Amino acid sequence: MTRVVVTRANRRPPTAFCHLLTLMAALGITWAPATAAQGGSSVAPRESRIPVGDASLYVRDIGTGQPVIVLHGGPDFDQRYIAPDLDRWAEAFHVIYYDQRGRGRSADQVAPDDVTLVSDLEDLDRVRRHFGLESTIILGHSWGTVLALEYALRHPAHVSHLILMNPAPASAGDFALLRDAYVRAQGPDLDSQRAIMDGAAYREGEPAAVSARYRLHFKHALKESKDFDTLMERMTAAFISQGKEGIVKARAVEDRLMEDTWSREDYDLVPRLRDLRVRILVLYGDHDFIPGEIARHIAGAMPDAALVTLKDCGHFAHLECAEDVRRAVDRFLQRAR
Description:
With 337 residues, this protein is an alpha/beta fold. The chain is 45% helix and 17% strand.
């Protein structure tokens, strides 16, 4: 296993530029990069749907370069929290996102019992085949890293590289490690979370209540308050778009997937990773609320895996230290050729 530590670059603008921003603010003029509305990319995204039984997967792709299939986290979220940042890769990659079945814009005509770990892996394979990819890069974030590993273990010939960003536990034992660390970090906020979750508004999927709960849930997951605010703006907008029914359905899907993975005492991918012959990059933020041991357990199971620790970065590396993530990915792909 190769270990690398990346120090976050100082991104303060030059003094003269700061003075210009101050003057603009005094005049009531706001400044933003010209491409901010499309997540830093001037390339237009494309939307499509892939049939899965009586339902369909919502797919959004952008760019025309080397293909990368992105697996969002949650597992009750959808792609909207991650797409604005990875859209910036469109000049070099063909970035393919999709909302996993029963979540986001892939929820219509889906019952929670329709979704299992196996169906999620079959859906990923459908996305690969839909784009005519024999072998592709798969990037998973958080829960998405579990899907990425499960898929690579079953279909190694269809995976050229794995990028595991802020990986979730790959075993029930590591999930217990995360749970214990999470309880300690939350402290009194845990009681506040439980009070929200016990309320009727949260149980019924009221977006405001769900957003309030996740503000506490991710309170210790990011280093900088500005990044936390950006994340919560994106998530709140997604909750409002989903509506109560969509939120409750996604939550039930999450429970179903837990039954197939972390709730099983014997769930453990780590020993099987030793035989996985796929090039792997593990990206971990030193301020992540998931303990670093979990990323090290995954990377350590494979002698050729590269583990990169991102300094001053939390659980949402694509948002918090986007430039460092991109540099690490570029170096990894160059070495892997």
